[in-house]
Design a protein that fits this description.
Blueprint: E1 3-4, H1 9-19, H2 25-34, E2 36-40, E3 45-47, E4 55-61, E5 64-69, E6 75-81, E7 86-87, H3 90-93, E8 101-104, E9 108-114, H4 115-124, H5 126-152, H6 155-170, H7 185-192, H8 196-208, E10 212-215, E11 218-221, H9 224-231
Antiparallel strand pairs: 1-2, 2-9, 3-8, 4-7, 4-9, 5-6, 5-8, 10-11
């Protein structure tokens, strides 16, 4: 079970309303009354597939991967969540159980509140409804692009695209080179639709070409433009 920490509920509630461009006292009071702040340890599930969605989730800190188990137990990372992003609500609006699972890939803090509260607020505030429609639309567009790229591109192009995606999503450390996310080789392989052994070999080849530098789970992007060119190849 995730441990609970109520200390920052007021701050988180205000930040959520800012995301929604809301300054309503009634919405603040309703959300504050129903919000929970939960901590998850690395590799702990935030939710599991086949569960019934009950809460809207907002990542406050850390990183979460959304993944789906495939054939022979092999999982595919569908999306990676960064602060401050909502997740875990699509299945509810589709009247479905979860078709994916969410797992912390580093220690993280997640805010949650009943989706029934969210739908009540959406009914009374058009801006909130537009916020989630826009988010779902962006996720659908990204999913469409990655579906084509992960099924039609060569291994090398897929891995380059994953590295660029991680850079654009999370940015770099203070040195200006190191990705601000440390993934296992298995996770990188899952994001790139390849086996772990192929991911290891391709990363080594890119390091030998001095396109990147690898130190354990730390990956430095040395030649950004060349990686982007490779990612565009079929």
């Amino acid at each position: 079970m995730a441990s609970r920490n109520e200390v920052n509920k007021e701050k988180v509630t205000k930040e959520i309303l800012q995301l929604w461009n809301s300054s309503s006292k009634d919405e603040y009071d309703l959300l504050l009354k129903n919000i929970s702040i939960n901590k998850y340890k690395k590799n702990e599930n935030v939710y599991r597939d086949s569960e019934r969605p009950m809460n809207a989730l907002l990542l406050i800190s850390g990183k979460v991967k959304i993944y789906k188990d495939g054939i022979n137990g092999r999982s595919q990372i569908v999306r990676i969540i960064k602060p401050v992003e909502f997740f875990g609500y699509r299945a509810y609006f589709a009247n479905e159980i979860y078709k994916t699972a969410a797992m912390a890939i580093e220690n993280c803090v997640v805010a949650s509140f009943p989706i029934e509260i969210l739908t009540r607020m959406m009914a009374g505030n058009f801006n909130i409804a537009v916020f989630f429609i826009r988010n779902l639309s962006k996720e659908l567009g990204t999913s469409d692009d990655r579906t084509v790229n992960l099924t039609q591109k060569h291994i090398r192009a897929r891995l380059a695209e994953t590295l660029i995606f991680l850079k654009d999503k999370y940015g770099l450390e203070a040195d200006g080179y190191t990705l601000s996310i440390y993934l296992s080789r298995e996770d990188i392989a899952c994001m790139s639709n390849m086996t772990t052994s192929n991911a290891i070999r391709t990363l080594s080849a890119m390091a030998n070409e001095q396109l990147i530098a690898v130190d354990g789970r730390k990956i430095q992007i040395i030649e950004d433009e060349k990686l982007r060119e490779i990612s565009k190849l079929g």
